[in-house]
Amino acid sequence: MKTKFFERVKWLKRNVKLLVLLLVVLFLLFISCSLPDGGGAQLAMALVTGVAGGKHVVDGPLTTDVTREAAPELLLNEIDRQIVKIRPMATPVDQLSRCAGSKHAGSMIVDYHNVDTKPTSAKLRTSYVAPATEDDVDSDASRVKLYTDNDNIFDATDTILVQGVSGYNADGTLSSNELVLYVTSRDEEGGIYAMPVNGKKIGDLENCMPSLSSGTTLIRMGRAASELDVMSPQFESLPQKARQFCQIFKMQIEQSTLQKLSNKEVPWTMSDQEEAAIYDMRLGMEKSFLFGVKNRIWDPIKKENVMFTGGIWHQAGKTFNYDEDSLTQESVIDMMREAFTGNAGSKRKILLGGSGLIGSLNKLNYTKVVTAAESVTKWGIDFNQLRSKFGTLYVLLSEIFDEVGMADNGLIIDPQYLQKYSHIPFTTESLDLKKSGVRNVDALVLTEASCLVLRYPKAHMRIVMQ
After folding, report:
1. Structure pTM?
2. Does the first or last residue of the chain, that is N or C, have fewer Cβ atoms within 10 Å of its Cβ?
């Protein structure tokens, strides 16, 4: 008996895997026979409608597929609860004006004054022909009368550099220095009397005025007084008056009481709405500050005047035209020369440009003459630098130019002469529309009445593609 028992145990040990496999097959056959339509139908048939319309699962496990079919909103999808606040474009002009500070304006109409500089050059209107020989001299050959296109910029004792005309040495030979004149007086009827400082020699007559052709440029230099002079011709300067209008910028935000109390999928409050509204308001102000037209018109509906501010694009005193096909490093040098010379502006200015202009500048290969330096942060804005011997430009893309169809244009601003005036500083005011019986909402109004002016127009320059 014991022998047969041990033999059966050994047989079971040898065939245990086969027995397990047989049991699994029998189990699957049993399941298949008990479900006439297959296992998938069992899950479908497991949903039973309750007496009140609910769903019940019978004869099967509760799976995610069954749950989504019976109660679609029960299982939550993954929700990113951080709201991405899209900022499609920057507002550099508005940012600059706020960082630099604004002056309070006591009226919506702002009158400001610019002190201009006295012109430094004029051109000869008529030619002067010097005598050929000493015998031809019928008057003083050293003191002659010259007629320019702007005699009033010259006074007695002024010295004048004659551009492109060589002076003379004492022996009568041509000098490497340019001709310099000394103004003795100005004729009230027109013209100035001048003497050469390094004039030519005609026969035995020394320091005579050489011939000067029409259109020659005369550049005013410093005054030269004699030993006994205690006085000098007077110099006075009067400021020039200009006018700008402040524009009232407004934005209103409302949220109903029920909206405020309701649960939200993401945290979206009145403060978030206010931030988005402020950004949209600043975008509109940026466009008005750049390209607005100064005017005052009558609104027939409101029965009152509406004032519009003028953009600084129209206030700039210079324009540089360029051709897209010929934009090279040489033309960039010409642009920077025009921007930094002929005015009393600073040597660090800001270039705001559309994507076309900025793209063209980025395509250039710069050398040591003009260099594209590392970025720098000023007034809370990251700029790229463009350096030359004339000065440094802080370059920034402004998508506002793209928006208004001026992607290939730009504006060079001297921040030293950019001034903001505010009649009503940026304020927020809560409106109680509930007590007034208008609406059951929380309301907030954002208001600013302001304008921008360029105090010295020639320090700023438009860049326009032809």
Report:
1. 0.61
2. N
